[in-house]
Amino acid sequence: MSATVYQSCTLAPETPKSESGELQDMAAGLRKSPAPEEAPRLVPKELVHLKDQSGVLVTGWTRPAPEVFLVGAEWPGEPEAPDGGRPAAATAAGLVRQCGLAVSHAAFGVPLEYQSLLKNLNCTLMEPDPEPGRRGGRTPVTVELNCSQMIRRGGRVIGAEIMEFTVRHGGRVVCRADSRVQWVSPQVYRRLRGGYLTAPWGAWDVPDPVAPERVGCSSAAEVALSPAGRPDRWLLRNDPANTEMFDHPVDHVPGLALLTAAHQAARAAGGPRWSAPTAVMTSFRRYVEFDAPCLLDVRTSGSGVVEVAGSQYGQPAFRIVLTG
């Protein structure tokens, strides 16, 4: 069992690592957003820790102040599903996460081989159904990113521990979010992860899914939960074929995958009203591993709040609160 306490976003072993010169070239190409008549250019997938370029949402950025960025991005259209597809809050969480990663690497120069340890990520929608989510394709949005508690190494700023995001569409604020992260070197990460870093991908049993319609999914392949014998408890289901949760092989369950599972648990416990939560608050205490069961316990309240507590090896692992 891992003894560390945070959630990281790990590049796959086969993902190309850019040398410092290549990273500078990436940054130079992103500092100027494309002209209005030009098609948006998506940033290289390495900057947002993805293997599939089609999943990239960030198009570029400008830097009006040393710790302030205006990031161009694309809000993805919601897929078809029984209750409307992926909730907008989860979409927004994934979008701002990409913005933070891209700025950290391209603007602050955090090496691509460094690991991002996500401590928490919170997101609130200003409207229950933001305009970008109702469109079939991607919609351009602007993300104002304010950085604080700067991380310094050798007298040089290499990143920000706290990031605050304001997502705007057509001049209107549609989402606010904040995150707290820490960056660690490959050497430190190897010490943190030990043998888990080289564990074979997909070498675990995948339990049977709950009925897709119960958690708002269109197919069993999208389901992240398995029955655990109680109406308020679920077993995390890590299907390596689910590319929405796992873009590439990783050494632990990513934080955004846990958010997906938590939303499904809220949907299963509270019914269709939890198809589109308007806010999520997340905190990660330790890594969630693939080689042991992870339980999700759900507690609902009459005030429109669902709390999902994840545990593994009998120890608290994460806590996600959804508001509807």
UniProtKB/TrEMBL annotation:
GO molecular function, one term: transferase activity
Pfam families noted in UniProt: AfsA (PF03756)
Region Disordered, annotated ranges: 1-39
InterPro entries: AfsA-like, AfsA_hotdog_dom
Biased composition (Polar residues): 1-10
Stretches assigned to the A-factor biosynthesis hotdog domain: 96-179, 233-315
Record-given protein name: A-factor biosynthesis protein
Natural source organism: Streptomyces morookaense
